[in-house]
Structure formats: C-alpha cells, structure tokens
What does this fold into?
Amino acid sequence: MKKGQQRFDHYLNQLQELLIKSSKQKNPALWLYANNARTPLFMLEGLAKLYAGIHNKKKFTKLKEHFKLLEDAIGAIDYYDSFAKEFIGNKKIPATVTNYLQAQSREKIQSLNEILKEKKWLAEDNTRIEKIRKKLSTADWQDEMEDIKSIHQFYIISINKILEFINQKDYQFTDVENDLHEFRRMIRWLSIYPQALLGCIQLSKSTTAAPKFLAKYLTKEITGSTYNVMPGAGDQKHFLLLDQNRFYALSWMIAETGKLKDNGLKVEVLKEAILQTTKSTETQALAEAYNLAGPKQMTIEQVLTASQNLIKTFCKEKNLEAMIMGTAITKP
It folds into this structure.
C-alpha cells in the first residue's frame, strides 16, 4: 500500500472504531460529538482536499464532500453547544437565549443522526467506510518521492491562493464569516495537513538567524504547543521541510484570528437568539446583543479592523512564502 493510501487508512480506522461504538449508543450523534469524532474527520477531509489537488480530482473531491458533511454537522453542534455552555452561568443572559441555543444544539444533533442513517455510516457491514476504501484502492497513488514533490507543489499553490485572496480584499474586511473566518480556514489547513500526512512534513530550523520580527509570534504557548509537534517520520525517506519559526508564526496567527472570530461570533449568535425569541428588529437585536455580551465586547468593526491589522503585518513579512524550505531525502 502506497503512503498516500496508508494515511487515509490510518484515519479511516479511527473513524470506523468511533462509528462502531456510536452505533451501540442511544444517541450516536451526541456520542460522536462528545468523543471527538471531528478530529479524524478533519484529517480525512484535509487528505481528500490535498489529494484532489494532486491527482484523481473527481474521486477525492467526492470523498471530501462525504467527510465534510459529517464534520460540518458536528461543527454546527459545537457552535451552539459551546455558546450555550458559556452563557448558562451568566445571570445577565436571559434564559430564553440559552434555551434557544440548547434547542438549536439538539436540532443539530438530530440532523447529524439523520445524516448518519441516510448515508449508511452506521450500517453493521460498514457500508460507507467500505465504499470509501474501495474508491481509495483504485486511486493513482504515486511513489514516495513523487508524492512529496506533489505535496510540495500543492503547498505552493495553496499559499498563492491565500495571498491572492488577501490581495483581492486589499486587507479590507467587511464580514466576519466571509472575510476573517474564510482567511482563517485557508491558513488553518496549512497546519492540518502536516498532522494528516503522518510525518512526511517536518519542521526545520533555518541555518541563518531568524528575523527579529518573528519574536512576537514565538510565545511559550505556541512553541510549547503539542499541535506544533510533527508526527513521527516512521519509515518515511522523503520529506517536505517547513521553517520552524514561520510555522510557529502561522500557528500564532491561527490562534489570534480564532480569538477575534469567536469574539465576533459571540455577538452574532446572541443577535440570532434575540431575533428568534423576541419581536426585536435587527437593529434592536444587535444593540441588545452588545449589551448582553458586556463592556469588554468588541464591535464587529473593531474585530474586523484588528484582524486586518494582524493579517496585513503577517503577510507583509512574507511569512507564508518563506515557510516552505523545500524537500529532503533524509529526516532533518
């Protein structure tokens, strides 16, 4: 079995084990959400996304859609459930708001249960998983050296797409979801791929002194994060090398834009709940959402401005372009 197929097999085994256990539960969707099924789905979605850009585009795009459907469904549960749990102990937040969010969470759980049943993810004969394995067995897998070359090229293309997105926006964000969140999605995949690829991407230190401007990104939280430790190389002989400090800078940017995104979404979810549970106009609901969020809550405009400034600095420093160091035949 070629390396590419082995990577899918690794995470399919994890997902299959979770699906089998969930099928024995009264509420499979809730169990999958509570037991972190989203992680192997992220990895499988990332692999499918990557290989769709390398070969067998139609095959891997279809697989990506299968994984994304489940991952999005779990993400929708998490969205409402997380905010409901955050607000439940806040006496300032009306019970009608938390009740609405809890109801939405239950609705999303039911939606996932329906998907699991309709798409045969929980079938006793593992119908969906076996169909996926069969499709993977017919893919045009490359040998290890060509695979790494292709992954290298895919990273270059992915980074160019991110820079093109930013240039088109001219660093002017007007929407949390379509601008800030979309940028964060794009850069986050660059940090997910190394985990999904199981060791063929490794971090390496530059032989020259790191630019002083990188110091602001190299916090203890980032440099000590387990998420920034690459998987073991195993018997891998060919590698794509990423500059360690630039990868840390990427990780910092993902974390900081995540905080800003969540800050903006907090207002959005409160506004939604108010609109759905009262007769407020959108303007009134937004004003009340800011009131309930508290005095430290940033406005949407402040969130977008802060994110623009961070991203502009990050991109002007050419951190993405400088992150790729090239390929190597032996582990660094």
User: Anything to note?
Assistant: The chain has 13 helices and three strands. The beta strands are 201-204, 239-243, 324-328.
